[in-house]
Amino acid sequence: MKYLSIAVSLLLLSACSMPLLALAQQESAPDGPPARTVEGPPPGFGHGPGTPGLPPFLHGIDLSEAQQDKVFAATYAQAPLLREQEKIAFKAHAQLRALAGSSAYDDAKASALANTAAQAMAKISLQQARLEQQLLAVLTPEQRQQAQQWHDSRQVPRDPRRLP
Predict the structure, then answer these.
(1) Which of 44, 43, 74, 81 has the alpha carbon at shortest distance from 138?
(2) Buried-most residue among 5, 22, 86, 105 (CB within 10 A)?
(3) What 3-state class would DSSP assign to 155?
(4) Cα(41)–Cα(126) distance, rounded to whole angstroms?
(5) Per residue of the chain (164 residues), what is the pLDDT tens digit?
(6) How far apart are CA 147 and CA 74, in angstroms?
(7) 116-143 b/e with 16+ CB inside 10 Å = b?
(8) Residue 48: C-alpha distances to residues 9, 105, 117 (Å)
(9) Which residues have C-beta within 8 Å of that of residue 41, sequence separation ≥ 6?
(10) How close are the terminal C-alpha atoms of the chain, in Å?
(11) How far apart are CA 21 and CA 59, in angstroms?
């Protein structure tokens, strides 16, 4: 059972760290786009069409200037926490890869590194959920309905033959 939990932790870690690896490769590529500056959108937002810096579910929703200011403040307030957790997850994953390839492999240390990375990714997910709730509270009921329609259009229908 212990090995199963370690295997599940490693699988979760590798799945969660893929975006971090892509980001690291993108920032280190000499001919790639320049690294994001302070003026750019915070991590996780601003990709694709729409207003830069807005979460995707707010694209296409007409926000008042006061709402834009609140969205900006909430979005940028979370950026330092997200960056710190991304660094923790990336460092733990790099150490885990190095440990896995070394002759001094220690299962307990590998498990601790996997847990550290997974906890950082969990904190990132939780912070993004909190931010979404903060942003939804800024919206009017009509705007919330538009955001809900966006979410509904993004949902993948479940296959009734598969277990939940």
Answers:
(1) 74
(2) 86
(3) coil
(4) 19
(5) 554 455 445 444 455 555 554 545 554 544 444 444 444 444 444 444 445 567 777 888 888 899 989 999 999 999 999 999 999 999 999 999 999 998 999 999 999 999 999 999 999 999 999 999 999 899 999 888 888 887 778 766 666 666 55
(6) 17
(7) bbbebbebbeebbeebbebbeebbeeeb
(8) 31, 42, 28
(9) 52, 53, 54, 75
(10) 23
(11) 27
| Tokens matching residue 110 | 């590998």
Of 31, 55, 34, 33, the C-alpha closest to 43 is 55
Give CA–CA dist 98/103, Å, rounded.
10
Q: Per the confidence metrics, is the pTM higher than 0.70?
A: no
Go through the chain and tell me how many residues it has. Answer: 164
